[in-house]
Design goal:
The chain has two domains: 142 residues, Fructose-1,6-Bisphosphatase, Chain A, domain 1 (2-Layer Sandwich), CATH 3.30.540.10; 105 residues, 3-Layer(aba) Sandwich (D-Maltodextrin-Binding Protein, domain 2). A hairpin with a 6-residue loop joins strand 1 and strand 2. By secondary structure, the protein is α+β, with helices and mostly antiparallel strands. The N and C termini lie far apart (44 Å). The strands form three sheets. The chain has a seven-stranded mixed sheet, sandwiched between helices. A five-stranded mixed sheet has the order 11-10-12-14-13, sandwiched between helices. Helices cover 36% and strands 27% of the residues.
């Protein structure tokens, strides 16, 4: 795919995101229908479902032969990386959305034959969009992203999964102690934006493809490391514990995980 076609797709997706954000903001103060999925902390609302249906409809009109992997089930059963695969998280951080009406994101990614082409993470309430891919670079609200410093763990803040720290999975307590401090934002998208902007040196959590699909593309394009928590390659259809980090922090954390 040539760069002009990628730019055309990029412009189109940004239009979907503007419209999607407007849809969410119009409904955010209405009465929500909230249901649980796998547990009482795994929520879905009517707005999650409506927003996913909106984005899926747009993708099907624009790229009818593509397959779509959506968190809320409006897409397809995707079991291979062949062809065009779009990954959609209509509201990332649903608990934050329900309880705070803040700190949540919309994420879209396009992979072609398993290779990341374009990724988008929109901080809805902050109206802040990280976008791009290997052919374009990474943009922060339309401006080229300033490359984050390659900061080691001991000199930076780290975003961690609260439950993983409580259970000390993969020596998370030690990882937190070795950093300057731990942050728990409750939204993969918000955490990944913070890593891209250099506010965090790493983010570690158990993630599904819609949680990291866009972030993997953006972070790798920006020169950051994206692997499983023990340093293995991360496939786009994986559901596993994921680490996105500066190269130095990645090395430091792998040393702790391996102890």
């Amino acid at each position: 795919m040539d760069v002009n076609e990628i730019k055309r797709i990029d412009k189109t997706v940004k239009g979907w995101l503007r419209e999607s954000r407007d849809n969410v903001l119009r409904k955010i103060d209405t009465r929500l229908t909230v249901n649980t999925k796998s547990s009482r902390t795994d929520l879905v609302t009517n707005i999650d479902k409506q927003n996913e249906q909106f984005i899926v409809t747009k993708i099907r009109e624009f790229d009818p032969d593509a397959r779509i992997l959506g968190e809320e089930g409006s897409g397809d059963e995707v079991d291979s990386v062949a062809g065009h695969v779009w990954i959609v998280d209509p509201i990332d951080g649903t608990m934050n959305f329900v309880k705070q009406r803040n700190h949540f994101a919309i994420m879209i990614a396009l992979y072609i034959d398993g290779a990341g082409v374009l990724g988008y993470i929109l901080d809805v309430m902050g109206n802040h969009l990280l976008s791009g891919g290997p052919a374009l670079g990474v943009f922060d609200n339309g401006q080229p992203l300033e490359k984050a410093a390659d900061t080691p763990l001991r000199e930076g803040l780290v975003g961690l999964s609260g439950p993983m720290v409580l259970h000390d999975d993969y020596h998370m307590v030690n990882i937190a102690n070795r950093s300057l401090g731990m942050r728990v934002y409750g939204s993969a998208g918000i955490d990944i934006i913070s890593v891209l902007r250099g506010e965090l040196v790493a983010y570690i959590s158990y993630l599904k493809p819609w949680d990291f699909g866009a972030g993997k593309i953006l972070c790798e394009t920006a020169g950051l490391k994206v692997t499983t928590v023990d340093g293995q390659p991360l496939g786009m259809l994986s559901s596993t514990t994921v680490m996105l980090a500066t190269r130095k922090a990645h090395r430091d954390i792998l040393t702790i995980v391996g102890q």
